[in-house]
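step 3/5: co-fold with magnesium ion
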Amino acid sequence: MPKIANITSKNLEEAAEILTSGGLVALPTETVYGLAAHALQDKAVRRVYAVKGRPSHNPLIVHIMDSAHAEHWAKVNSMARTLIQAFWPGPLTLVLPKSSRSVSRIAGAELETVALRCPKTTWATAFKNFGFDGPLVMPSANRSGHVSPTTAQHVADDLGDKVDMILDGGECQNGIESTVLKIEEDHAIVLRPGAIPAEEFVPFISDLRLASKPGKLIAPGMMKSHYAPKAHVRLDATNKRAGENYIAFGPTDLEADFNISPTGDLKEAARNLYSALRLLDNKDVIAVAPVPTEGLGAAINDRLRRAAANKEH
Ligand code: TXA
Ligand code: MG
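step 4/5: write tokens
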């Protein structure tokens, strides 16, 4: 098994060394655990695709350790600059036109754009002190198509000893991936609803569009079936049937196998969702109670729809 390492100065130094020399480290972020590799090293990036079993046409997010690095890799217009000031470091990924510089071509699926994210982490400052300041490619640290990991143990369960180190930062705070926003000249498009609800962008963007029609391939990685357990997922379930595991939301008299938020709090539900899907993946069907669609509920429902989608797609 890979080394599951606590966040100590010694382990952080080792992690920085592994990344600098082309190895793979699973790192905690405020959203989910990521599988990190040096973004400028083709060999390391290739290994990320191989370890995840990820199709090469699905590009990786470039993670920078300082928001000031954005302009190095991308053309940042005034809308993007405003969003960076308001939301970074934090769970927002911006898809922007590439600058003349590029990270490993393998990470970019030959697109003219680059997805940039500056995460809120416990390790960036330490890495900088050890002489490594990115950038990193960092997809979620799960097998491609599976549920994202929100604990170090989830990463070990999925990727085992295919990674060189897993840095254990406890349970991720948000528990659901970053919001992916594509910035155009005069409007922005939500490619993936995520940890920042789209409503929060309204004060900053006059023309905000939603592009999350399930099944429609708007972003390369927006496959219909994704974030999926092995079990069939039955949505909007108001009862538990024989032989099913049941995920509840909010106060209920039903016998639940996991209530992702007994008080009906969407933040708590987002934080618990992936743990619940992983834990209850020991029966043929996971039935899930209806979850409201406003605020963070948009991202939760998006992931549930993909978890439920026919895996043939
Ligand atoms: O919260 C997160 O974003 C986590 C943590 C680890 O940072 N990372 C993550 O990465 O969720 P990943 O690779 O699992 O999902 C990234 C998504 C994919 O759907 C990919 O297709 C999309 O971002 N993406 C990456 N580059 C893109 C681009 N240039 N244009 C459109 N979509 C892009
Ligand atoms: Mg992923």
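step 5/5: annotate
The helical segments are 9-20, 42-52, 70-73, 78-87, 124-129, 152-159, 266-279, 297-308.
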